[in-house]
């Protein structure tokens, strides 16, 4: 009897097809990485996290001291894909309309015209997001979540791809407006950056002082290539055991004692939300894709769990008194929870 088109494909065959497609599309990401590397020295961890967020349709919160190429990284990425880039410097006097746009009255036509704000771009750098008041932060975070902006009576869809890279300076907290935990939860990843190595710093000096100045990235792929890769990321196979592992990691932040981590209970005031589970699954798929695989393995989850979970934890005063950070708590959970 002949098979009909309604018959489901064999799972092993479907996985093989997806894996072959990923191998073909891997060249797109390789080209993108190579072009970014012409400008950005080191910081491969940050670049990979930007790519994961881009492929999984998420956003990134970057924390690091000034001068670590945060702005340069996302600008270089936008140049390599040839999409529109916009930088918003968050300041205490910024208004929501400065981000989203507003209606301007035209006296000649006696009507209002729409002036779109800098949020209408593909890649947004929200520089020092904690320096603007809550109204402005909420306007940006709503756009991140809804992927649309309402100006007057009209709702405008934001362009695709849409990626927000928000930065925070950890060394200056005076006069800032820290993001509430519920708002931070909207970022897929929070990445903490460190200083470059001695060798990397030497290369940074050379690239900045040489004749001709700093190199710039040229377009190597398009937004359509990213869209195609995103479709493939969704097809990456996530086994039920891996799903359970993700749930176990997240639940260990809510009920540490059940995971054999009872000593963490007094240190956690709020565990990770369901967004942590969703984003950990999506980011793990993107991580597997970047490594040329059509299926997720536990190491993918472990590699990305820190960046997905650390900013979703609420710590008690006891944790602060013992100098226990969210990053350290997540590390203890990753090392304790049984790997499938």
Written account of the structure:
There is one protein chain. With 340 residues, this protein is an alpha/beta fold. It folds into two domains: 31-233, Rossmann fold (3-Layer(aba) Sandwich), CATH 3.40.50.300; 236-340, Magnesium chelatase subunit I, C-Terminal domain (Helicase, Ruva Protein, domain 3). 46% of the residues lie in helices and 14% in strands. The chain is built from 13 helices and eleven strands. It has helices at 11-37, 44-55, 70-81, 96-100, 134-146, 181-184, 198-209, 223-235, 240-254, 274-290, 298-309, 317-321, 326-336, and strands at residues 60-63, 85-89, 101-106, 111-116, 123-127, 148-151, 154-157, 163-168, 189-192, 268-270, 314-315. A five-stranded parallel beta sheet has the order 2-5-8-1-9. Strands 3-4 form a two-stranded antiparallel ribbon. The chain has a two-stranded antiparallel sheet with strand order 6-7. Helix 8 (223-235) packs across helix 10 (274-290) and helix 9 (240-254) packs across helix 10. It is globular. 36% of the residues are buried. The mean pLDDT is 86.
Features:
340 residues, alpha/beta, Rossmann fold, Helicase, Ruva Protein, domain 3, 2 domains, 5-stranded parallel beta sheet, two-stranded antiparallel sheet, 13 helices
Number of strands: 11
Number of domains as seen in the coordinates: 2
Radius of gyration: 22 Å
From the 3D structure, determine the CATH topology of the largest domain. Answer: Rossmann fold
- Which geometry do the CA atoms define? globular
């Amino acid at each position: 009897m002949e098979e009909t088109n309604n018959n489901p494909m064999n799972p092993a065959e479907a996985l093989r097809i997806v894996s072959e497609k990923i191998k073909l599309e891997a060249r797109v990401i390789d080209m993108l990485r190579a072009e970014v590397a012409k400008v950005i020295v080191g910081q491969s961890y940050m670049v990979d996290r930007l790519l994961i967020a881009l492929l999984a349709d998420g956003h990134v919160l970057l924390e690091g001291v000034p001068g670590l190429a945060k702005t340069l990284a996302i600008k270089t990425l936008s140049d390599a894909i040839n999409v529109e880039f916009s930088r918003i410097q968050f300041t205490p006097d910024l208004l929501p309309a400065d981000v989203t746009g507003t209606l301007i009255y035209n006296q000649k036509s006696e009507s209002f015209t729409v002036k779109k704000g800098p949020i209408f771009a593909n890649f947004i750098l929200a520089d020092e997001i904690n320096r603007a008041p809550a109204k402005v932060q909420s306007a940006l975070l709503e756009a991140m979540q809804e992927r649309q902006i309402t100006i007057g009576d009209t709702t405008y869809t934001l362009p695709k791809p849409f990626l927000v890279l928000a930065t925070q300076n950890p060394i200056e907290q005076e006069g800032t407006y820290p993001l509430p935990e519920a708002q931070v939860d909207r970022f897929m990843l929070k990445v903490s950056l460190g200083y470059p190595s001695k060798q990397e710093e030497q290369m940074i000096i050379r690239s900045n002082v040489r004749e001709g100045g700093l190199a710039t990235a040229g377009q190597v792929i398009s937004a359509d290539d990213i869209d195609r890769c995103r479709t493939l990321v969704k097809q990456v196979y996530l086994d039920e055991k891996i799903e359970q592992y993700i749930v176990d990691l997240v639940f260990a932040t809510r009920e540490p004692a059940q995971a054999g981590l009872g000593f963490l209970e007094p240190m956690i005031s709020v565990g990770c939300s369901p967004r942590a589970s969703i984003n950990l699954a999506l980011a793990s798929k993107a991580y597997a894709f970047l490594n040329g695989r059509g299926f997720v393995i536990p190491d993918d989850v472990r590699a990305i769990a820190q960046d997905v979970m650390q900013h979703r934890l609420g710590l008690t005063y006891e944790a602060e008194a013992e100098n226990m950070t969210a990053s350290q708590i997540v590390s203890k959970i990753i090392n304790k929870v049984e790997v499938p």
